Amino acid sequence: VNTPSDDLARRAVEAVARQSYGRLVALLSARTRDVAAAEDALADALMAALTTWPRDGIPNNPQGWLMTAARNRLLDQVRHRQVRDQNAPTLELMMSDLYETKDPDTLPDERLKLLLVCAHPAIDPDMHTPLMLQTVLGLDAQAIARAFLISPKTMGQRLVRAKNKIRQTRIAFEIPAADQIPQRLEAVLDAIYAAYGSSWEDAAGTDRKAVGLAEEAIWLARVLRDQVPGDAEVHGLLALMLHCEARRPARRTADGKFVPLSEQNPREWVAPLIEEAERELVAAARNPRLGRFQLEAAIQSVHAERAHSGRTDWRAIAHFYDQLVVIAPSLGAAVGRAAAHAESESAKAGLSLLDEIDADAVTSYQPYWAVRAHLLSELQRTREAKDAYDRAIGLSEDDAVRRFLLERRG
Amino acid sequence: MLYAVLIYEGPQDFDRREDEAEQVNYTGAWQAWHKAIVEAGVFVGGAPLQRPETGTTVRQRDSKRLIQDGPYANTKEQLGGFTLLECPSLDAALEWAARCPAAAYGAVELRPIAPEVHKRVTGEYPK
User: Fold this and answer.
1) pLDDT recorded at residue A203
2) Pairing with A235, which of A84, A300, A332, B113 sits 20 to 30 Å away (CA)?
3) What is the rounded CA–CA span in Å between residue A48 and residue A52?
């Protein structure tokens, strides 16, 4: 029976789980190096809260209550295995600080260590993002699988395998030396950006691979920014995602039609998100290290400027892309660069940049064909344009994008 | 590995096939997807099917042939066609299934071919 107090307790459990899941998994696993066991212990603690809180009332410090319950559960499990495992006393010692405090907020936030472990070079790069989403945000394998277009069963197995590897190879939960931080952070940033659904704001603005876990990615980036204040690329990544997020309402008409960036109404962009993005870019600029995410955020910042100036400075965008393909070459950057040069110079210039890209790499890359089709039709090469449109349409997943391209193709 | 892409569509989708106004959106999307899977070298075979009403279901029970007019399952969405894809993994096949136009308006089921059963029945593995 769902009494009002049951409902209240359930919502309290959900709220504290959302706020503290990653903090608690990080606290526990930083001491045990066993992420799966920490998650299981926390899951048990959350279940216990669902039965105890309606009866005894919601504790004054719900996060502290969960930490204590999860810590005890973890120790119980270890004692259970003690016959064959002599680690238990050490573990108790390692977790002693969890006994001395009732409030996890007084303990150091270990989430950065957890993020670094999830994106450790010893872990399969494809699993960096799913691991973070699960361990720091508590997303289940099903939701992660849906976002990455793979089967839930495969995703579940890979997550288990990755966590076993963390435990078996004893990957350390520690902050690397200062000179290694940028390199290690790079993998964390890539993984967060992958959660956002990286290809959806390509210059073509045409198709995105994953269902963007946009909110989750921005949440992770904010956690990271608070943990490593002053890192230019962390600010850059957050700025980039906020700029893209600001355009969400303008991307579709009321009846669901796709609107490319250049045709969006800037008044539909979310001003507070753009302002936050610009603050992050300013913070990034205080640090002289120029990186990929800062450049990409700078490109989006130029686009956002249209809200004030009424025009797009394509020359500036082309300039940023020229730098981007040098420091972080990728298909997306190469295609974006071609599109930017097409706007700032000529369709012909854009097309010759597209021709420079390796043909084998682009057979299944939708944005390439979308940009190519657009440029060919500007050059009145109708038959080739139609062919390129067909390729782009066939590679599209988003129905609105497909319809948009079908209309353009005519 | 061979995967069958089973395409399920509703009555309104079968109507769209014959609708002049839908030639760009409906037929155009299918042409483009077909072209993409052929270009990528994953297409093995397949065909669209006529409307479910044209189906005839046969059962042989107690030495009697029972014939039913209509499709096997009486559901709103019906099998509208199938495509065979050769892909290295389920995830690779899912990439192509997600791009199938019916994924956006109907449903697309992906099923691996059973190679062991194929071998037992025909004496050889599927090509």
Assistant:
1) 40
2) A332
3) 6
Q: How far apart are CA B15 and CA A155, in angstroms?
A: 38
CA distance A381 to A373: 9
- Angstroms from A350 CA to nearest CA on chain B: 24
- The answer to whether residues A159 and A100 touch, using CB atoms and an 8 Å cutoff, is no
Identify the bridge partners of residue A289 per DSSP, sorted by sequence position.
none
| A121 C-beta neighbours (distance < 10 Å), count | 10
Count the neighbouring beta carbons within 10 Å of the beta carbon of residue A61: 15
> Residue B44 to residues A365, A393, B17, B31, B38: CA-CA distances in angstroms?
21, 20, 23, 16, 8
Residue A279: name the closest of A228, A222, A323 by CA: A222
Q: Quote the ipTM score.
A: 0.72
Chosen for mutation from A364, A401, A404 (greatest number of chain B CBs closer than 10 Å) is A364
* A49 Rama class: left (phi>0) / alpha (psi -120 to 50) / beta: alpha
Q: How big is chain B, counted in residues?
A: 127
The pLDDT tens digits for A181-202 are 877 888 899 888 888 874 444 4
pLDDT digits (tens, 9 = 90+) for A123-166: 888 899 899 889 988 888 888 887 777 788 989 999 999 999 88
Q: How far is A407 from chain B (nearest CA, A)?
A: 8
Using CB atoms, which residue from A150, A151, A406 is nearest to B29? A406
A156/B contact by beta carbon, under 8 A: no
Query: How far is the alpha carbon of A267 from chain B, nearest alpha carbon, in Å?
Result: 30
* Contacting residues for A167 by C-beta, under 8 A, at least 6 apart: A33, A34, A35, A36, A37
Whether residues B91 and A395 touch (CB distance < 8 A) is answered with no
| pLDDT 10s digits, A238-297 | 999 999 989 988 988 988 889 999 999 999 999 999 999 999 999 999 887 789 999 999
Say what percent of chain A tops pLDDT 70: 91
Q: In the Cβ-directed half-sphere of A184, how many Cα atoms lie within 13 Å?
A: 21
pLDDT at B96: 92
The count of C-alpha atoms lying within 13 angstroms of the C-alpha of A169, restricted to the half-sphere facing its C-beta, is: 12
Nearest-by-Cβ selection for B24 from A154, A364, A406: A406
